[in-house]
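Narrative progress, year one. The postdoctoral researcher (J.K.) led the effort to move from monomer predictions toward full complexes, under supervision of the PI. The following entry was the first complex the group processed end to end, covering 424 residues in total.
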Amino acid sequence: MNSLKEFTKGFLRENPTYVQVLGMCPTLAVTTSAFNGLGMGLAATSVLALSNVVISIIRKSVPKNLRIPIFITVIATFVTILDLLMHAFTYDLWKTLGLFIPLIVVNCIIMGRAEAFASKNGVWAAFLDGLGIGLGFTGSLVLLGTVRELLGNGTVFGLELWGKAFNIFVMILPPGGYMTLGLLAALFAFIGLKRKQRGEQK
Amino acid sequence: MKEYIRNGFILLIYCLAAGFALGLVYTITKERIAITELGKKFEAIEAVLKDESGKYIVSLENIRTVVSQVKDETKQIFEDGKGKVYSPVYQFNSELGPVYVLSASAIGYGGTVLVVASFVKKSDGFMLFSIRVTDYSQETPGLGAKIGEEDIQKRFYPIEPSALQNGIHVDKDANVSGLSVEEAKAKGIAKVSDVMTGATITPRAVANAINAMLSYLRSGVK
């Protein structure tokens, strides 16, 4: 039960994008399409889960005042490995995500989970936490990307749903990203409030 | 003092481990990356030798032989201040006349943008036959990176030699508006502002790369 909770908390209750408002830079930049959001999310998830595991393993041998540089080293290593692997095996996705893959190093979700969770918990819990938060991040990006792609381009994952005449071009541009993000964050806040109210009534 | 040395030593050990892991992955992926890059290069060369109806102006067989004969070594061979041209330069014979395929880079928004282009040599100069933007990985996804779309790249070609006297420009730099895509091409202008709103620097880099190749061809190839 406990580990299930560890895993699912990132989906809604502690959703990194809409509730914790972390990692905004890649969130706004790559979500011009659902597919880009999915790629970015999965890339960040794999780094998050693996770096959480390693940081949890080494947590007892890391001196307190050295933990930030060491965590960054671990995260940067995984990101570089991911960058090389994506370059070799998923060339087109690597091309589109480009700049944002190296930037996963400074993604505050990953650093935040390393500091707040992995450095204080066991390996299994840290893995589940990383995977859960990562999938929550992926879900958020896909949701944001889907809304923007649909409204801005009339497609979802490249499948055309309606004609070009209905497209609102601004949705693909940064202002569209902010608008969608704001509305979705409001929706998540609303859901959170409703859940809380229901909990109080019980 | 002792504390500092101890910390430095611990950090060194972690960095060594990280370096070792990276070295391992690098060795494993190196060959695969080289193969992928080469495959993409072939694809780009083949793509710029296709006309609008999708017909190759040089037979595939001919492309393969020429490409395999030329030593594949990427070196900078020309620079004009805005763009850099790289070797190898491939030369093919076609019904339209001699065709040159070469690559050049220019600075985009986040880094270099690499363009492969084909030029047909005609009596009054070089005609820009086709281009492919092969590396735009440092451009912003959704904005500059849209240059990867073929429909947008088509805005840059074909352009006749007479329109290329002063090189190619993007419409924003040429200070014209209201032209259709084809009208713009007739004046050596790539109309992109309607399809790449908010991203001027990336298409400008493509134009700079094309201009560098033009200057190189005009100066070097007889």
